[in-house]
Amino acid sequence: MNVYRIFASALLFTAFVSTGSVAADDKAKKQAEIRKVAQASLQRFYKSDPSLKRKVEQAPGYGVFTTYGLSFLIGGAGGKGLVHERATKKDSFMSMAQASAGVQIGASESETLIIFKSDKSLRAFVDSGWELAGGGGASAGASGKTTGSQDAGNVITGAEYYTLTKTGLQAGGALAGTKFWKDEELN
């Protein structure tokens, strides 16, 4: 009987350890994918505006996010990204969500680049998250190119904020709020 308990305990322990290992592998894969997407996004920003590369290289850190959204009078978007801290070379994985209401219609995939001007603003963003308010505008994008205008309502104190529309079309005006927060699962 004692042999069965030892065998059952060993089997249970092996299953527990294997599950933890799979979860760690899954976390590492998700982190690697976000890093890959962030680097590709940075290259598109640099191609769109070559002066951004120098700004990113000289900044204490930057954030890169990819979002997917849909709107028809009310809208929503969500996405993932990372904030890279230059001094520590640490990446903090983050999520974002956006809600809006107004005269709007469209669907889009967009990329956001946030260049922090100080360590303090970077730390505040990572540690506390951030909420932003927006306005209206119109933009269209395809194959990584963007045309149109965006209201300058998305402002982060101590940082510069840039957006590229990868695909889709958005038109109209709306009140919007965006929330960024640390992804507890990936950090």
Properties at a glance:
187 residues, alpha+beta, six-stranded antiparallel sheet, 3 helices, globular, disordered N terminus
Description:
- The chain has helices at 2-48, 51-58, 119-128, and strands at residues 61-85, 90-116, 130-134, 137-142, 145-150, 159-182.
- A hairpin with a 2-residue loop joins strand 4 and strand 5.
- It starts with a helix and ends in a 5-residue tail after the last strand.
- Strands 1, 2, 3, 4, 5 and 6 form a six-stranded antiparallel beta sheet that branches.
- It has one domain (46-182).
- The radius of gyration is 20 Å and the shape is globular.
- Helix content is 35%, strand content 50%.
- Residues 1-21 and 137-154 have low confidence and may be disordered.
- The protein is of the alpha+beta class.
- It has three helices and six strands.
Produce the secondary structure layout.
Blueprint: H1 2-48, H2 51-58, E1 61-85, E2 90-116, H3 119-128, E3 130-134, E4 137-142, E5 145-150, E6 159-182
Structural class of the helix and strand makeup?
alpha+beta
Distance between the termini: 44 Å
Proportion of residues in extended strands: over 45%
Mean pLDDT: 77
**H and E string:** HHEEHEEEE
Please bin the fraction of helical residues: 25-40%
Biggest beta sheet attributes: 6 strands, antiparallel
Number of strands: 6
Taking pLDDT < 50 over at least 5 consecutive residues as the criterion, the unreliable ranges are: 1-21, 137-154
Q: How would you describe the shape?
A: globular
Radius of gyration: 20 Å
Number of domains: 1
Oligomeric composition of the shown chains: single chain
User: So how many helices?
Assistant: 3
